[in-house]
Amino acid sequence: TEPLAGENDAPDMPPEPDFKFFVTTLAMQAWIALGVIPNPVTQKTEENFGQAKYIIDTLEIIDKKTQGNLDKEEKELMEGLLHELRMGFVHKTTGQSAAPGNPQVSL
Question: DSSP letter at 4?
Answer without folding.
Answer: P
